[in-house]
Amino acid sequence: MQTTLMHVILTSLFFLHTCVICGSASKWLAIFNMQALGISTIKSPDNCEELPGLVNKQIQICKRNLEVMDSVSLGANLAIMECQTQFQNRRWNCSTVDGSVFGQVLDNGTREAAFVNAISAAGVAHAVTRGCSSGELEKCGCDRTVGGNSADGFVWAGCSDNVAYGVQFSQTFVDAMERKTRATLERRLMNLHNNEAGRRTIEDNMRMECKCHGVSGSCEMKTCWKSMPTFGDIGQVLKEKFDGATEVQSLKIGSRQQLVPRNADFKPHTSSDLVYLVPSPDFCEEDLKGSLGTHGRRCNKTSKAIDGCELMCCGRGFNTHIEEVIERCSCKFHWCCYVKCRNCHRTVEVHTCK
Ligand SMILES: *[C@@H]1O[C@H](CO)[C@@H](O)[C@H](O)[C@H]1NC(C)=O
Ligand SMILES: *[C@@H]1O[C@H](CO)[C@@H](O)[C@H](O)[C@H]1NC(C)=O
Ligand SMILES: *[C@@H]1O[C@H](CO)[C@@H](O)[C@H](O)[C@H]1NC(C)=O
């Protein structure tokens, strides 16, 4: 126990001191942990200076948009939680190391880095847009460009999500980081591309929600508004893009560097696909670069996929133990009105990697 704790502390110190070109997302994402820094909400411009990992331009944006910063923090939180949900059954499971986000795992331009960039840019856009719709933010509100009668016989009414505002804010705030790093041009292009792909995922999946009005639910009049997908849906779409991400390299085309597929036989990526520069490490063993390894991870004995013991444990084998779970069972409804259950004990086999 003590050695693990020591290790975490060492790892995070190492991280703080050597992370100069770190996956840029991993730096400002530390905002999610504002509470841990003793900042519950951004009240004064001074708070902007206390936030870790921001570049100068972001500090200026923060000072001019104090009320939006809580949404940014919320967006960073959304992004991290969704990343952990989408990756819970993979070797790299998006764990945060002692308050710092993801360690150096994102230093290199891997698929994982691509995903984190996309989901965090989307997280900020989503949370800011929500802030606009809910009336919490003074600078923005619902989308006023949506209105009037539609050709399909309904009326645009209600609060359409102002996704343009959220996306614009995310572009200014999140992308500011990329113009101020020591990373290579190639890496900056990759990050900017994936940030944009994350935001497009929201725009491409906007949906229409409607409500019927009329005598006892008849739909004599229908009002509709445009609404963002849930953040869980965005996470799922981005996870699919992660699986289908394109390996690219930068080439000078005309006077500009551009990202093109490394394998010329593959069809070119679109602006909403994820791209990466280098293959991922196997994430099998713990190292000082922030990979925690898969020793002790739970695995599925019958699955052939990445959550299966064979792949998850990197061929090292696994241990099996029996765990007792207590569940509510034989529930009976009693008149009136409560439900009474018994506690049942059930044993399950749990497999963990050697
Ligand atoms: C990044 O790639 C370099 C070169 O392949 C490698 O030496 C280094 O360990 C990698 N860093 C991380 C954090 O995986
Ligand atoms: C993620 O992996 C780490 C290290 O393998 C493990 O300690 C942690 O419990 C895992 N997190 C989840 C949510 O499974
Ligand atoms: C394990 O994997 C199998 C096959 O993919 C699946 O049917 C089963 O639900 C999984 N079990 C658990 C506990 O996730």
Could you describe the 3D structure shown?
- Helix content is 37%, strand content 19%.
- A hairpin with a 3-residue loop joins strand 9 and strand 10 (338-353).
- The longest helix is centred in the middle third of the chain and has 24 residues, at 111-134.
- It folds into 2 domains: 3-276, no CATH class; 309-353, 2-Layer Sandwich (Endo-n-acetylneuraminidase fold), CATH 3.30.2460.
- The protein contains 10 helices and 10 strands.
- Helix 5 (69-86) crosses helix 9 (231-243), helix 6 crosses helix 8 (185-204) and helix 6 packs antiparallel against helix 9 (231-243).
- The protein is of the alpha+beta class and 354 residues long.
- The strands form 3 sheets. The chain has a 4-stranded mixed β-sheet with strand order 1-2-4-3, with no helix packed on it. The chain has a 3-stranded mixed β-sheet with strand order 6-5-7.
- The two termini are 17 Å apart.
- The chain has helices at residues 2-18, 24-28, 45-50, 56-64, 69-86, 111-134, 163-176, 185-204, 231-243, 309-312, and strands at residues 148-149, 155-156, 207-213, 221-227, 246-253, 256-261, 275-276, 298-299, 318-334, 338-353.
- Bound molecules: 2-acetamido-2-deoxy-beta-D-glucopyranose (3 copies).
- Residues 104-105, 107-108, 281, 289 line the site of one 2-acetamido-2-deoxy-beta-D-glucopyranose.
